[in-house]
Amino acid sequence: MPPPSPPDACPPRRRLILGAVGLSAAALAGCSAPATAQRGLPDFADLAERVLPSVVNIAVQSETVIPIPPEFRGTPFERYFRGRRERVQGAGSGFIIDPSGFIVTNHHVIGHAQRVTVALQNGTELPARVVGTDELTDLALLRVETRTPLPALTWGSSARARVGEWVMTAGNPFGLGGTITVGIISARGRDIGAGPFDDFIQTDAAINPGNSGGPVFNLAGEVIGISTAIYSPSGANAGIAFATPSDLARPVIEQLRREGRVERGWLGVSVQELVGEEARGGRRAVLVTDLVRNGPAARAGLRVGDIVVAINGERIENSRQLVRAVAAVPPGQSVRLSVQRDGRTQEVTVQVGRRPSGAG
After folding, report:
1. Catalytic residues
2. C-beta of residue 57 within 8 angstroms of C-beta of residue 109
């Protein structure tokens, strides 16, 4: 019969707490070391108290047409279903960026809502007007009317954020409101196949349905991201969440505020990437595979088979980089493309067009 185990010097509650913060084996050797390790963790209480008044809950109401059941199509009963609508309700998060009442959220939170209501942390509910939305970056700007200035947040630089840094998120998960979670930046520059402007910050902070449109803060309380999507086989938090970086979101929001919409430059080309031996000199480049008839690039003389290596002197190594560089150019302005054709490099000047809705 084995000898009895020695009494545990650490009470069970202490073991549970320490296990939750993932201490190393060395820290578990005694009961005094974990207390030191805990003191090294950031305290988010002051930060949460400061920024939560600027985080809002968003409720939306819309109507959708009820599809006719297949079994009733072509029967006398079809007329009973034709034109029937049902009311759909949804919830999301947002944050105030201006004391006068401008609020940022996700495009997919707003959708085609007929009614949008913003709830402040103090319980005040205000009707909101949609100033503009941008589907490509999944961003939307709202405006509420208020007699008193609202507490606003400030933008931070997502470019300065580093993998491994602490972040805090806030939002309205499952409609609970006023909820914060913390984690670290797990990765940057994530492409999740959402669109040509994918450049997501990945974090392991707990994000759930209803968090969409909520802010992601650095430890200074600046907004460096906007919660947008999660990877979850179950539909709930799985430790992988994605946020639109502030450096991408901020100019979009500013344009929505000025003009109510976002206009982007467009070449009218289809491209694919060349790597290694396929590219001239073994460097990455972009091959033109198709041209839109009478599009900007076709009118400028670009040809299928041209290899784009630079735009306005800046090296281009992949199609996403080319799309973003052109999209940043106001329609009507010109760009200079450096292309390789028949073994020679030449310059082609293209007057950028306006990106059509739904363009890839």
Report:
1. 108, 138, 212
2. no
